[in-house]
Write a structure and sequence with these properties.
heteropentamer, A: alpha/beta, seven-stranded mixed β-sheet, 11 helices, 15 strands, C: alpha/beta, Rossmann fold, six-stranded mixed β-sheet, four-stranded antiparallel β-sheet, 10 strands, about 35% helix, binds adenosine-5'-triphosphate, binds magnesium ion
Chain lengths: ~350, ~290, ~250, ~350, ~240
């Protein structure tokens, strides 16, 4: 089952995730299913509310599903994963907040980096490539942004980079002028921005308007396709680290299929959904069982290769907590396109 | 100082946007005695209408005209016929809940039928900016302010200086007597909603470049506009402009100099201060004598 | 000592002086009439005395106690009742509930009423009033659906429910059938005689005022034009000219 | 007050039947159904409180989800600090009651939509507080792993036992509300709604009753929140935002505001209807929204006014009465309250 | 059912009408003639206002016929009747509170040519000097009697063929009552017709041609006004008990 945000605050992310997974499931079914069986999938909207997420999760469990995809929002995952844990059902999530896998739940698996794993890469980049001595951090005041902010501040500290400013913005904030003003006043060597796509676009536009000229660094959500579409030329020059990007060569095919199917560009959430479905397939095939315990066991502490499972797009490894590791990218936006400037290897050698 | 001016200016531009949305509320209150919780969605719909128009190859101005026509038809005539008329005399709260339902319905409808994602929207004033005394100003900021001013003055004149405008107010205040005096009540109500339809279309044209076309873009607009309308005075169109600009500016100043975390609370604090001191809003006329 | 003493009440609305310095006393057991042309400030005077509006100046004493600036609530609790010129009933409540409501807050404590019997012991008194004003047949209809005159009667009945010591009546006869007007007058006289209740009555019905009142105040343009016995007022040239016509 | 008996026999029979059904429901439902049923009861408690404020006392309060949040956070924070649920939940009620008194203050100054927005604003402030005061509320991360309470050593951790706890509390608070509404207070609240000016001059302390209607309404939201937190095991700011306050208003009005069972029905519609519509996939919320509109058009007085609406239409047909007479009646009623 | 028209201007023929849960008029039969002031009297709740509302199309009779100029008008809307020259001044508050006195008057004469409207407004102001002093005040700020003056003035603006007027004397000072009565008399003398409800019976009778007394939704008395004024039983008519059981 897919328990995702299809209405409320997380709609955009949830819809992408759902679409990605749907695409993968259709492909898998068209190719004969998993171990000869077609996948049935139910979609459930959490309305971006944990209470409903919980209802949907128990509903999915009542219907004896093999695995649960989602939710994307960290708060909702926290609720739904306790339920899926009780029922021994593997639960794939798109959330990045660190605490998701800190609960010691053997059935939770990420489809994207834990913030505490992605941020070191960004911090390294700022320290070595940009040689920044001070950084101003702008983040969106929700669990996603706050978690990222906490992680990066820690990493920057570890590298002796000064946090010259710590600026929060509201989810859905429209007017970024005061935030940009504060960014300028911080007078740091670089800006690290960690906001959702829409707000990122607005921030970039306002930065451009007020003539900000320092390096602008971010994570996935600062330079996704959507941001570039919304911010236009204002996105040029943005760079940073992404775990998943539709513009990397490995995702080109997927991108094209997604665009054809849904008339919209996929973002990292779309990839996560797509990946999750194929990951489940790989795990079931490895476990040779649809039993939740067996699937989970097949994934813990093990790696999967693209050459065996083309759908997972990149080689991945899971650790014992369900955190994911895989290659990632350094990118820069040039002429309205995201360009990959470097591939970063997995953090741990598996 | 430049920083301060920059903030002030951005605030005024933002405020103009709030004001335009607030204007619709004051209109519906003065001329139809209704509160429309779907007003934000009423702005969202023309935005999408224009988006669809443009995706079919129409230029922006042509899409705008189409959107206005559609708005008058759907948000004016159909809304009046299917929701306002049947609910006449059933009390403000029932109407409020109906428009709440409508707001949920319209949002979800656009989401399911079009897309859940935000879409960029071109500005009629372009993206250019110019500098004045160190302050960066964009043409769309100026445009929004000018339009808001024009709309406010125009609406105020229409409601108070023309006999049709006054007849519309009369209908809102006392439908029974209006009917007994031979005022064409149904037509007046239609005018009200048709004007509102035009207002929201213009608003959509001006604010969507900033807000981005998204199914839930109305949430934020609606709320701020309400506070702006009440701060300025619900029964006065000029109040909407004053209220909007006050909210816009103070929000910006608070975001920069106080705490950005409570930026959204600024409109509220201002609002509370105003209603406690002057319950009818800054420019509102006092309530009627009670006994 | 007078039951009510009003000193120099003033109320100005923009350019209009609604009440421009009015003073008078009401003796215990007195029925005082207030007359005057439309817009002469009678209702505004009432509202100022009762705290419904805040006068710009002036002092009001009830039974020797300064009540200037007191709220309608305090006055009601002190035993001052009133009726309204415009219909003021609880439109959605039944007539009986209207009556009980008018009295229920006058006994017991605020918290005690949370646990009190639903009618707080006023059912009988309400029934008495219903009989008196011939409203029995509509007693359980919502008050808002009564005819104008009937609502007016409800308003009057409500003022008398808690047995007030002083009642201010604002045009009680307007829209009331002549036979009931006579009944109302008899009621007031009786209450006045038996219980020593005092009344101030605004009326445009001269017949009623002249037969009922011990003393009449005539207001014009917010000021007292004349005070005196009904006969004196009736014969007063200035009053005739400004108000009564002929 | 014509009725001398507490309840008519018919009413009593129906009520008993409904309660019996509620008692046997867990046997027939799976986890999902039971969870939903419990959530519904929690919403019913909250909506009953709002019905008192909005439906009976006529004060447009749009802060109800905020109050519920305060209740939920109070319980969550206290339980995390090791304090028993049985101490924490009365605290939640007390704190919400006090907060209701505070937030009732604007109601003394302003009315109608002004009041609605003042309270909506408070709700906004509360959410900002929940979100920003991370030291206390866990900020946007929320508070996790909220345990369900024990009852004299019996664990209520299981879904069924927790359901019965919520059911018992719902019934207790329902009865309390019914008693309150029967007392002179109930009539005073109605007076407040109908004509506050007249009410004051008949000795009704509108200040006190206004504040009490807010405070008691808030207290109901508080207990609802206190149950919500252990039910979901996790709280964060989102469920206590303004959109849920609006949803509560919708529950009350769609069910029938100022009618005792209105919230029971309204909460069922607002919570369960979307669930039933889920088979419509992407469209379900759109259909739900439009259904709500249609219901309001059809029965502006709420679902429970169905019987009267039908009688009215029959009588109207018989009396040949036009819409305009209704308008006239409304106008007089308004004139009387204005 | 007899459908004979008596040639009167307004006729009620066995009209049954009322409100949702209540029948007020029980086979009411009455008529009013052109060029006369017809006075409707009766106890509170007798159904006087209901007669006027039914006539003006705000209630539709359940059975029976309402005729105007010999034509059956059951079910016509107020707008149609207005166009045919009928005007109605209801009981209670019927002003547009936040509009000024002048604008309230203007809305009473929406269909008059501009110049004529101005002239008529001037006439009304002449008649009610108090309104002249308060031309630009919001209607809601006026005193009770001033509001009534405004309402009556507003209805008289269009000089309707038939004016239905419900208790014009409520709240008016005696002098003004006289003025209004004289004015209505003048209208009637010039060929217009007036159907008036009044509780201020003795004064109203002096200016009326005919008096109809209602009792519990029925016509109890139909006499020339002068005759009734001298009737020693006048008071009995008002003691007629309740309108409905
Ligand atoms: N709130 C207000 N704003 C402006 N003017 C007011 C207000 N209240 C009263 N007035 C004016 O004050 C004057 C006195 O009004 P008031 O109601 O006291 O008269 P009244 O003597 O009761 O007249 P009536 O016999 O017509 O009832 C009137 O001219 C009225 O227009
Ligand atoms: N809007 C209404 N809804 C229901 N019943 C009504 C309504 N208006 C009047 N009635 C009832 O109809 C009856 C007649 O009312 P109506 O207003 O015609 O009386 P009336 O003769 O004009 O009395 P009054 O002299 O008091 O104005 C009354 O019993 C009243 O309760
Ligand atoms: Mg008066
Ligand atoms: Mg009448």
């Amino acid at each position: 089952a897919q328990v995702v945000e299809l209405s409320g605050g997380g709609t955009a992310a949830g819809s992408q995730y759902r679409n990605g997974a749907k695409l993968a499931i259709n492909e898998i079914n068209a190719a004969g299913g998993i171990m000869g069986k077609k996948i049935e999938s139910i979609e459930m909207d959490t309305q971006s509310q944990p209470a409903i997420a919980k209802a949907m999760t128990v509903k999915a469990i009542d219907e004896k599903v093999t695995a649960i995809f989602g939710p994307v929002f960290s708060g909702s995952i926290l609720v739904s994963q306790t339920e899926s844990q009780k029922a021994n059902i593997p639960n794939f999530t798109g959330g990045e907040a660190s605490n998701v896998t800190a609960q010691g739940n053997p059935y939770i698996f990420r489809s994207s980096f834990n913030q505490s794993m992605g941020m070191p890469k960004v911090a390294n980049y700022m320290a070595t490539d940009l040689k920044a001595k001070s950084v101003v951090v702008a983040y969106v005041n929700n669990d996603f942004g706050k978690g990222g902010r906490d992680a990066i501040v820690k990493e920057l500290g570890a590298r002796n980079i000064k946090v010259a400013g710590d600026i929060s913005t509201d989810p859905g904030q429209v007017d970024m002028s005061s935030a940009v003003l504060r960014i300028k006043q911080a007078n740091a060597d670089a800006l690290f921005a960690y906001l959702n796509e829409e707000e990122s676009a607005r921030l970039l536009k306002e930065l451009r308007k007020q003539g900000y000229d320092k390096p602008m660094v971010g994570e996935t959500t600062l330079m996704g396709a959507k941001v570039i579409e919304l911010a236009g030329t204002a996105a040029n020059g943005v760079r940073g680290h992404v775990g998943l990007t539709a513009d990397a060569p490995a995702f080109k095919d997927f991108s094209a299929k997604y665009e054809k199917e849904f008339k919209a560009k996929p973002d990292h959430n779309g990839i996560k959904g797509y990946f999750s479905a194929y990951m489940l397939k790989a795990a079931i095939e490895k476990a040779k069982s649809t039993d939740g315990k067996a699937i989970a066991a097949a994934m813990k502490n093990s790696c999967f290769k693209v050459k065996d499972n083309p759908g997972i797009l990149l080689d991945v490894c899971f650790d014992d907590k369900g955190d994911i590791d895989r290659e990632s990218f350094l990118v820069e936006v040039k002429n309205g396109k995201q360009e990959v400037t470097a591939m970063l290897p997995m953090i741990n050698k598996h | 100082m430049t920083d301060f001016m920059q903030l002030l200016l951005s605030g005024v531009a933002m405020g103009a946007i709030y004001a335009m949305a607030a204007l619709g509320f004051t209109l519906l209150w003065q001329a139809a005695g209704t509160i429309n919780f779907a007003q934000g969605e009423f702005v969202m719909l023309p935005a999408f209408a224009m988006l669809i128009g443009m995706s079919m190859g129409l230029p922006l101005w042509a899409s705008f005209i189409v959107a206005v026509a559609l708005s008058i038809l759907v948000l004016g005539a159909a809304f009046k016929k299917w929701i306002v008329d049947p609910m006449r005399g059933s009390g403000v709260v029932s109407v409020v809940v109906a428009t709440l339902g409508l707001s949920i319905g319209l949002k979800s409808f656009v989401k399911a039928g079009y897309s859940a994602e935000p879409h960029p929207f071109p500005s009629i004033f372009g993206d250019e900016v110019f500098k004045l005394a160190g302050v960066t100003i964009s043409y769309s900021d100026v445009g929004a302010l000018v339009f808001a001013g024009l709309m406010v003055v125009g609406l105020q004149m229409f409601l108070n200086k023309t006999i049709t405008g006054r007849a519309m107010q009369a209908v809102a205040q006392n439908t029974f007597s209006a009917e007994a005096l031979g005022i064409n009540v149904k037509r007046m109500i239609f005018y009200t909603f048709a004007i509102n339809a035009i207002l929201v279309s213009v608003t959509a044209l001006l604010i969507t470049p900033t807000y981005l076309a998204k199914f839930d873009m109305g949430d934020n607009i609606g709320l701020k506009a309400f506070f702006a309308a009440i701060i300025g005075g619900f029964n006065n169109s000029r109040g909407a402009l004053l209220g909007g600009i006050l909210v816009g500016v103070l929000e910006n100043l608070a975001g920069a100099y106080l705490t950005p975390a409570y930026k959204d609370g600024v409109a509220l604090v201002l609002f509370l201060a105003v209603i406690l001191v002057k319950p009818d809003g800054l420019l509102g006329t006092p309530q009627e004598r009670k006994v | 000592m007078s039951i009510l003493s009003v000193r120099d009440i003033k109320k100005i609305y923009g350019a209009i002086q609604a009440v421009g310095g009015v003073s008078f006393d009401v003796e215990p057991g007195e029925i005082l009439g207030v007359i005057g042309p439309n817009g002469s400030g009678k209702t505004t005077l009432f509202n100022s005395i009762l705290g419904q509006i805040k006068p710009d100046a002036g002092k009001v004493e009830f039974e020797g106690k300064d009540i200037s600036g007191g709220s309608p609530l305090e006055l009601s609790r002190l035993g001052v009742g009133r009726t309204f010129q415009n219909l003021q009933v609880f439109g959605k409540l039944s007539l009986r509930d209207n009556l009980i409501l008018a009295a229920q807050e006058h006994t017991g404590t605020f918290w005690g009423r949370m646990f009190a019997s639903p009618d707080n012991g006023f059912a009988d008194r309400a029934q008495e009033m219903l009989d008196l004003f011939r409203l029995n047949h509509v007693a359980d209809l919502p008050a808002g659906s009564l005819s104008y005159g009937q609502q007016k009667l409800v308003d009057i009945a409500m003022a008398f429910m808690p047995k007030p010591r002083l009642v201010l009546l604002d045009e009680p006869c307007a829209g009331v059938n002549p036979s009931l007007v006579d009944g109302l007058r008899e009621l007031l006289v009786e209450l006045n005689k038996k219980q020593g209740g005092s009344f101030i009555v605004i009326e445009h019905n001269m017949d009623f005022i002249m037969k009922l009142c011990h003393r009449v105040v005539c207001m014009v343009e917010g000021k007292v034009l004349a005070v005196g016995k009904p006969e004196e007022i009736q014969g007063n040239r200035a009053v005739l000219e400004a108000y009564l016509g002929n | 007050m014509k009725k001398t008996t507490l309840l008519s026999t018919q009413h009593l029979a129906l009520l008993t039947l409904a309660l019996l059904a509620m008692c046997f429901a867990p046997a027939l439902l799976k986890t999902y159904g039971l969870y939903l049923l419990t959530l519904w009861l929690v919403y019913v408690i909250a909506a009953m409180g709002l019905n008192l404020t909005v439906g009976y006392a006529g004060l447009k309060s749009l802060c109800h989800a905020g109050f519920m949040g305060v209740g939920a956070y109070t319980v969550a924070i206290m339980m995390k600090a090791g304090i028993s649920f049985w101490i924490a939940s009365p605290m939640a009620i007390v704190i919400c009651f006090a907060l209701g008194l505070v937030i009732g203050f604007p109601a003394l100054r302003v009315q109608l939509h002004y009041l609605g927005f003042a309270t909506l604003g408070f709700n906004l402030l509360l959410v900002l507080f929940f979100r920003n005061e991370e030291w206390l509320t866990g900020g946007t991360f929320g508070i996790q792993n909220i345990k369900r309470p024990d009852f004299f050593g019996v664990s209520l951790e299981s879904n069924t036992s927790f359901y019965f706890l919520v059911l018992a509390i719902t019934v207790i608070f329902g009865v309390l509300l019914a008693l309150l509404l029967r007392s002179p207070w109930g009539r005073a609240f109605a007076a407040l709604r109908d004509n506050p000016i007249r009410a004051e001059s008949t000795g009704v302390n509108i200040t006190a009753y206004t504040l009490m209607s807010f405070a008691i309404g808030a207290a109901y939201a508080g207990i609802a929140g206190a149950l919500f937190a252990p039910l979901v095991n996790f709280i964060e700011p989102a469920p206590f935002g303004i959109s849920n306050s609006l949803l509560f208003l919708m529950m009350v009005v769609i069910g029938g505001s100022g009618r005792f069972y209105g919230p029971v029905l309204g909460a069922a519609i607002a919570l369960l209807l979307p669930e039933y519509l889920r088979f419509l996939k992407d469209w379900y919320l759109a259909v739900f929204g439009f259904t709500a509109v249609a219901m309001m058009i059809w029965l502006p007085g709420g679902l429970l006014s169905m019987k009267e609406a039908w009688q009215l239409s029959q009588a109207k047909r018989a009396a040949g009465q036009k819409q305009i007479a209704e308008v006239a009646a409304a106008a007089t009623a308004k004139g009387a309250t204005a | 059912m007899p459908k004979k028209s008596s040639g009167a201007l307004i006729e009620f023929d066995k009209v049954v009408a009322g409100y949702t849960h209540l029948t007020v008029l029980n086979e009411m039969t009455l008529d009013a003639r052109k060029g006369e002031i017809t006075l409707l009297i009766g106890p509170n709740g007798a159904g006087k206002s209901t007669v006027l509302k039914t006539l003006f199309g705000m209630l539709t009779p359940r059975s029976g016929e309402v005729r105007f100029n010999g034509e059956v008008i059951n079910g016509r809307t107020p707008r149609q009747l207005l166009a045919e020259g009928m005007a109605f001044v209801p009981q209670g508050r019927n002003l547009f509170g936040s509009l000024s006195v002048l604008h309230n008057l203007e809305l009473g004469g929406l269909h008059l040519p501009k110049a004529l409207l101005r002239e008529r407004i001037a006439e009304v102001m002449e008649l009610f000097p108090r309104l002249k002093q308060r031309t630009d005040s919001r209607a809601a700020s006026l005193s009770g009697g001033e509001q009534k003056q405004l309402e009556v003035g507003r209805a008289l603006l269009v000089k309707p063929e038939v004016i239905l007027i419900d208790e014009p004397s409520i709240g008016l000072a005696p002098i003004i009552v006289q003025d209004v009565m004289k004015l209505l008399r003048k209208l009637a003398d010039s060929g217009k017709s007036v159907l008036m409800v009044e509780q201020n019976v003795r004064t109203a009778l002096k200016y009326s041609d005919r008096a109809l007394a209602l009792e519990m939704g029925r016509l109890a008395v139909d006499k020339p006004a002068a005759e009734l004024l001298d009737d020693p039983n006048l008071n009995r008519l008002f003691l007629g008990g309740h309108a409905n059981k």
